């Protein structure tokens, strides 16, 4: 079976029904904590997703991946609940890691590291970002301090990493380190005593299992055949993952913002103030109208970027534009939903306040808005000077 022969709309419909009918019922589950859902809850949700034939819906039997346009159709409804991507196995960082391994891993690496991720039996972590206090790599990976050196048929890695999503509880790790030849990517089995979680950070978001950790890597020995690609190819291979991963974030959080808008709309259509429904007050009605505009424009940006990626020509500029436009638009949507609902909007009685927190973090994760704008500004200057030269 190939991606071109599947009915992505039918897959998306099954995912939406599962999230709305099953996953939403877990949104007040006591196994949800500040650092994400517990491993027990993740396993329970994924068992139900598997029974409903919606587990890892973007990857088909045999390993074929849906096109990016088709992936958008599926990932948006998976995000209708903050728990949805966890339940159906479309959540970051696993979704991006599966995409990367599907593109660049050897057959042996896929069998060992990718297969358990696709089956929803394991979670993964991508070890790239480093602590700012160490002067390490954040939005600028060229500042990387984590190093690796060849020792016989093993690579030895030392360094510290920060904001590593899902490190706690992960079974598969992808570690970036700097060698004399340049950046390298390694596949590692987790847990490993050489990879020590110093602490799990308390952050504004709470949807991702394992939270976000600061990690120390000390004398980690990795067999040479667990390197992805060749020495020095780490940055190039990371881009294989990062550009589509930014777009996947946009897809999932579009679903979350859509759900928040639905909840705010229902609230405004039943709550009365000053003799009429809230929705009939121009200030509230206009906010909901603006939500529709932002949601539709975001969907168009996602679909355009996905089509460019499918055509094989997606660059960092396109993914940066999508990341900026969609994250900022969805932040406006989430903020308006909170405002429309007043006190209820800032309470935990609905998932609106969580969506607000999650999307606020999304404006930073995978590159802050300002970094992407700076990158685009450099491209504008470069293209202008190139045009003058010719």
Automatic annotation (TrEMBL):
What region holds the Acyl-CoA dehydrogenase/oxidase C-terminal domain? 232-379
Output the InterPro entries linked to this UniProt entry.
Acyl-CoA_dehydrogenase, Acyl-CoA_Oxase/DH_mid-dom, Acyl-CoA_Oxase/DH_mid-dom_sf, AcylCo_DH-like_C, AcylCo_DH/oxidase_C, AcylCoA_DH/ox_N_sf, AcylCoA_DH/oxidase_NM_dom_sf
The question of whether Isomerase is a record keyword is answered with no
* Keyword field: FAD, Flavoprotein, Oxidoreductase
What is one cellular component GO term in this UniProt entry? cytoplasm
Q: Which GO molecular function annotations are given, in alphabetical order? A: acyl-CoA dehydrogenase activity; flavin adenine dinucleotide binding
Where in the numbering of this chain does the Acyl-CoA oxidase/dehydrogenase middle domain appear? 125-202
- GO BP annotations listed: fatty acid beta-oxidation using acyl-CoA dehydrogenase
Q: Which coenzyme or cofactor does it need?
A: FAD
Note the superkingdom of the native organism.
Answer: Bacteria
Quote the protein name from its UniProt record.
Answer: Acyl-CoA dehydrogenase family protein
Question: What family does this chain come from, according to its entry?
Answer: Belongs to the acyl-CoA dehydrogenase family.
């Amino acid at each position: 079976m190939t991606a071109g022969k599947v009915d992505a709309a039918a897959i998306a419909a099954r995912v939406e029904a599962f999230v709305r009918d099953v996953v939403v019922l877990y949104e007040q589950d006591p196994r949800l904590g500040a650092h994400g859902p517990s491993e027990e809850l993740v396993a329970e949700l994924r068992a139900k997703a598997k029974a409903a034939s919606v587990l890892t819906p973007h990857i088909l039997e045999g390993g074929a991946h849906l096109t990016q346009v088709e992936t958008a159709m599926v990932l948006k409804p998976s995000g209708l609940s903050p728990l949805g991507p966890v339940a159906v196995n479309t959540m970051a960082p696993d979704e991006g890691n599966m995409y990367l391994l599907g593109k660049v891993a050897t057959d042996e690496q896929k069998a060992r590291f990718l297969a358990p991720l696709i089956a929803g039996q394991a979670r993964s972590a991508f070890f790239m970002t480093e602590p700012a206090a160490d002067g390490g790599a954040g939005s600028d990976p060229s500042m990387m301090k984590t190093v690796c050196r060849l020792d016989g048929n093993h690579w030895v890695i030392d360094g510290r990493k920060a904001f590593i999503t899902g490190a706690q509880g992960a079974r598969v790790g992808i570690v970036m380190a700097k060698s004399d030849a340049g950046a390298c990517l390694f596949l590692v089995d987790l847990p490993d005593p050489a990879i020590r979680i110093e602490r799990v950070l308390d952050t504004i978001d709470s949807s991702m299992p394992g939270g976000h950790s600061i990690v120390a890597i000390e004398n980690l020995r990795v067999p040479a055949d667990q390197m992805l690609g060749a020495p020095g190819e780490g940055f190039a291979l990371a881009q294989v993952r990062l550009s589509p991963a930014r777009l996947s974030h946009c897809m999932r959080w579009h679903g979350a913002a859509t759900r928040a808008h639905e909840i705010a709309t229902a609230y405004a259509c039943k709550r009365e103030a000053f003799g009429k429904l809230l929705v009939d007050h121009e200030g509230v009605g206009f906010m909901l109208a603006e939500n529709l505009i932002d949601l539709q424009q975001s969907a168009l940006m996602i679909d355009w970027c996905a089509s460019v990626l499918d055509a094989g020509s997606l660059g960092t500029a396109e993914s940066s534009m999508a990341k900026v436009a969609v994250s900022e638009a969805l932040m406006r949507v989430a903020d308006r939903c909170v405002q429309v609902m007043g006190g209820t909007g800032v309470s935990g009685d609905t998932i609106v306040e969580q969506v607000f927190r999650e999307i606020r973090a999304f404006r930073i994760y995978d590159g802050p808005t300002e970094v992407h704008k700076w990158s685009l500004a450099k491209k504008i200057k470069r293209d202008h000077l190139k045009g003058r030269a010719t």
